[in-house]
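chain below, 223 aa
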Amino acid sequence: MANKVNFHVVNESGDKGWESRVTSPDGSVTFVFGPELPPLNDGSVRLFTGTNGDQAAEIRSDGYHKTRLADLTALRYWTYDVQNNGQQWPYLILQLDWNGDNQADDLIFFEPAYQTPATGNPALPDQGSPMLNAWQQWNALVGGWWSENGIAGATPGTGVKSLSAYLAARPNARIVNSPNGLGGVRLVHGFAGAADTFDGNVDAVTIGVQGKSSIYDFEPPTD
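prediction:
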């Protein structure tokens, strides 16, 4: 049986379970046309930190609360970055609960910069070096991750590990939303150096659970 795919157009914060969050005083999350030709239709979501690179602009989905990490069958997204610190492109965070109490026990991070044999784990697929001013797709399901708590020895850079390695150490891990309701699937720009500026776009986020995939197409608001 073929995998089932559902398409969802997201035009604003709160649409289809995606909420924006900006901690930088002059940052923003906006739904825009472009840049250039996005992977789906005409638009994307722009994540801009302003002049406070130690803060962040992010968009988060609350639609995967209590989803088992082991049940993910697709996890991809596209980026187009205009400005960063030379290392950090828009990245993916999953908030994870290990024991079913609906509290986050760990954060795991997928960063595009760590997805080549030289910068990450050579045992994992080479997804190419991230580039400025270009649309690129990232397959987080097969990529390298690091853990805030170093679970399975997963650390940034060459210490990134596969999701299967993480699951071997924490087989009951589930995605969990924050107590304030913000989603446990997070696409983030920022949380780096205070003097850095991060300005980039995300589109065509694909999340699959047990073979049923949803593709989220970020587009400008409708009139």
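The chain has a mean pLDDT of 97. The first strand starts at residue 4 and ends at 10.
thats it, cya
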